[in-house]
Amino acid sequence: MNKNNAYRSILYVPADNHRAVAKVLGSPDMLGADCVIFDLEDSVTSAGKADAREALRAALEGERPNGRILVRVNPLDTQWGAEDFLAVLAMMPDGIVLPKVEKAADIETALSAFEASDAPASIRLWGMIESPLALMNIGEIAAMAASADPRLEALMLGTNDVALLTGTPLVPGRAAYIPWIMQCLAACRAYGLALVDGVYTDLKDMDGFQAECEQGAAFGLDGKSLIHPGQIAACMAAFTPAEADVLEAKAICAAFADPANAGKAVLTVNNKMVEFLHLKAAQRVLVKAGLTDATP
């Protein structure tokens, strides 16, 4: 299993929760999550931010589990943002999560900070879409993936923040949110970005959580943000393609990779006609399955 290109389950862990941080880092597979985001922002009080940053630095000095480790910093225009950014770069995570992105300039500022710090390209950037202005500017934000530094890799929906700022309740089915979610998905797909769904905060309502996971997967989202390890299994089940779909995707990829089919635009695989568009769809299935032969 290769989690380098998988975004199915993204577990938030407060950086000042030492027990939770140790539990994740002590698990060989990060409790089964594809990615973990250690949070220095919303889940840490103003008074505790410096201590949380230092505790996380110390925790990440040890051996790391299999999976992607990211850190959510405070916005760069806050009193903690610049110090967070520099300190986290020194921790060498797989990525930095930038909250409260509202316009392309916010991504550009972060990319400039990466450049000024001479950060390796392996440290990617994820942006959070959490406000009405961000939703209005989603196209220009996603387009930053095509900038000179193509470090932007994924966008994350902050649906609870959107609910607060718009006054639009998050109810079962999220009917009012579907246009916003799909507009974000279209922008991400236009520029090759992953899109991760927002958190589900009612830890006791596993039926509702599962339904929202299945909805996100049906919409075509790449995964979901999680706030508790108990949500990982259901999330992974919803966002991992069925075995039959994986086998079909492997067969399509193998057929196009066969030298005997070089130069052919249309093939027959398992008695079905397939074209290059089916190859791209098959590659996406393998990405979502987290397989080693997946192609981004």
Report on the structure:
The protein is an alpha/beta fold and 296 residues long. The chain has 2 domains: 9-239, Phosphoenolpyruvate-binding domains (TIM Barrel, Alpha-Beta Barrel); 243-289, no CATH class. The chain is 42% helix and 17% strand. It is built from 12 helices and 10 strands. The chain has helices spanning 18-25, 49-59, 81-91, 104-116, 132-136, 138-142, 159-166, 178-190, 206-219, 232-239, 243-257, 276-289, and strands at residues 9-14, 35-39, 68-72, 95-101, 124-129, 152-157, 194-197, 223-226, 267-269, 272-274. The strands form 2 sheets. It has an 8-stranded parallel beta barrel with strand order 1-2-3-4-5-6-7-8, surrounded by 6 helices. Strand 1, helix 1 (18-25) and strand 2 form a beta-alpha-beta unit. Helix 9 (206-219) packs parallel to helix 10 and helix 11 (243-257) crosses helix 12 (276-289). The longest helix has 15 residues, at 243-257. It is globular, with a radius of gyration of 19 Å. The two termini are 15 Å apart. The mean pLDDT is 94.
